[in-house]
Write a structure and sequence with these properties.
Blueprint: H1 6-13, H2 17-24, H3 29-41, H4 50-69, H5 80-88, H6 109-115, H7 118-125, H8 130-137, H9 142-149, H10 154-164, H11 172-188, H12 200-210, H13 213-226, H14 228-237, H15 249-256, H16 261-267, H17 273-281, H18 285-297, H19 303-325
Length: 326
Amino acid sequence: MLTKDDRPLILLRLLDSDVQQQVLEFLPPEQANGLRRGLASASVHDAVDWSLESSVIDEFEMMLAFLKTHAPPPPPPPSAIQLHEAEESIVGTGGGAAPNKKFVPSDDPLADLERMPAQQLGLTLLAEQPRTIAILLAKLSGTRTAELLGFFKDDLKQAVIKELGRESIAHPTLFDRLARATIQRAVAAADGPPVEQSDRVGKLIEILRSLDKAQRGPMLEALEAEDPELAGKLAESLYKFEDLSTTEDRVIQKILGQVESATLATALFKVDDAILQKVLKNLSRRAQQSLQEELQLQTHVAASKVTQARTAIAQIMAKLAREEDA
């Protein structure tokens, strides 16, 4: 038979250790210390009785439902200005099209998280803690995860990625409850004005460029498993000609070894001095002299040709990066 201390202990054991500590800080010291002792004495090998845990969660939700029905009336809906400010707190507006009709949830919360308009779900996730967001994203496809990460500012994005890197797996019952609650909030907030959508591929490129190499590789692999064609486009677009200014000398030397002199000269037309000096530094003295003479002879080069030459060099950068990772 469950005691009064068993129920909170069961609920706490479903949470990540960081979230456990946050909850315990709000409890009276004596009760918090007792629960801490209970958590410390529980073995990681203890058998999991999912039916018992589900029963406790159901009781907890019934209590929340009761409190909700007896709570003061909610504040009035946000004004158009407040909605605009909320939308501006995200980085971009994610992929997918703005919904033409109200999203209708199904009995499968995981499928709902995958098919719900990205903007609708992304705006809702902004109000969640990084750990909660990570629990939900960990179950989604790589493409969907990258798409939703694009809604967050860098600090929240990095916190979520850090949580995703942890090996702990959320209890299925906890995921189900969190997913359903998130979907309900997203549906309830869907009456706000639609926000113009940005280019999906462009947003994914922006996300991947913000990650370091160790994080970018697994994300690209996940995307490739979902959509090889999209992953190929992203891999080729991850590198920009302007990245030469921060590229290692050994890599620049490999790049220059695969670029024709005419293409290089065209790409360097009216280029930033930092890039020019970086290129010259990694050429032989004879090649330096030849390139500088060719640049001095250039009086006008069509912008389209400059762009084409720089894109060709960026593609070589991407190719070399893939070969290094292979």
